[in-house]
Amino acid sequence: MHDSKALQRRTLLKCAGALALAGALPRLAFAQAAQSSDQPAEKHFAPQPGEWKSFEVTTRVDLQHASGPSTIWVPLPVIDTDWQRTLSNNWSGNAAKMSVGSDPHYGAQFLVAEFDGSAAPHLEVVSRVQTRNRKADWKKPVGGAETPEDLRVFLQPTDLLPLDGLVRKTALQITSGAKTDEAKVQRIYDWIVLNTFREPKVRGCGTGDIKTMLETGNFGGKCADLNGLFVGLCRASGVPARDVYGIRIAPDEFGYKALSGKPAALQGAQHCRSEVYLKRHGWVAMDPADVAKVMREETANWIKDPDAPLVAPVKQALFGGWEGNWMGYNFAHDVRLPGFTQGKVGFLMYPQAQNKSEVYDSLDPANFKYTITSRAI
């Protein structure tokens, strides 16, 4: 596989500007592999817009081994769109001070809880939201309401999503010859599905460092990596795009275990989705990373063909839609948390904490104990 990835990267870098997506950028070796005769049968996966569903999501944090002053930051869902409504955010605990912080660029919000060390830090945040399924109607343009000023932030680079150099070169090669933004997005989505893959060994949701992915030719990762690469390539192509950082809060209604959240234990269920802005359709849902997740984790055997019966309906539906069993926190990159001693956070969908100047690892439950649960209301 390593030789195939290297070949794929060399091919990508040598292709001429007029290079078309189909046929010019080869699939990785695993995407060319023949499927066995016992390939799982196709499932129905077709989220349709419908009724709102209401959920209560509870995050509980108990700092281990804390002594002296400590601070906990918990992301708050504040998204209000045609697919999610935030009803309320409430909190309790033994903090000496609790306040809401905000990111000035993307509007993300987070609870800041400051503890004086007089007792073991404990915090509980209860959020109530409504969500529903999404599906773009490609035959009925509705137009978008965003202004150029609104969209400017979603065309800019971030620390993890540079838009120059190899990122721009790759984007232009993939979209060469595409006449519309819709065509560009379709090219990039297909390229992500064909050339990236889910790597279960990656911690958390990945780092989202797309420059390193392209420079090394290592296209394995998780949602923050794969959807981050999708967003970066769209922005570099001139199409407004954004990551949406959140968490799965309910089982998948179509029976896909890889696309489900377990309400009794959601830590580890964090998931980054993405959106693109199209003038004829407004903000449109996208999630190529979940296509890769179904391929890698839905069955015991790695499904290496994105058009296999079990994967094909997911691939089709997640171009323009997603299921409402997920809650979004924010669209933010490069978040500065007040008092955080290690600089900016690349994205905010995990609780963060520090004791004095020592930062807790939010992916290490043995030393940073938190639980997230949900229930339908």
Summarize this structure as a short list of keywords or feature phrases.
about 375 residues, alpha+beta, C8orf32 fold, 2 domains, five-stranded antiparallel sheet, four-stranded antiparallel sheet, disordered N terminus
Summarize the structure.
By secondary structure, this protein is of the alpha+beta class.
Structural commentary:
With 377 residues, the protein is of the alpha+beta class. The protein folds into two domains: 2-46 and 136-329, C8orf32 fold (Roll); 53-131 and 332-376, Immunoglobulin-like. Helices cover 24% and strands 27% of the residues. It has ten helices and 17 strands. The chain has helices at residues 2-14, 21-24, 29-32, 148-152, 165-175, 181-195, 210-216, 223-236, 288-297, 312-317, and strands at 53-63, 70-76, 84-93, 97-102, 109-115, 122-131, 134-135, 197-198, 220-221, 241-248, 270-278, 282-286, 321-322, 326-330, 352-355, 358-359, 368-376. The chain has a five-stranded antiparallel sheet, with no helix packed on it. Helix 5 crosses helix 8 (223-236), helix 6 packs antiparallel against helix 8 (223-236) and helix 6 (181-195) packs parallel to helix 9. The protein is globular and about 65 Å long. The model is unreliable at 1-37 (pLDDT under 50).
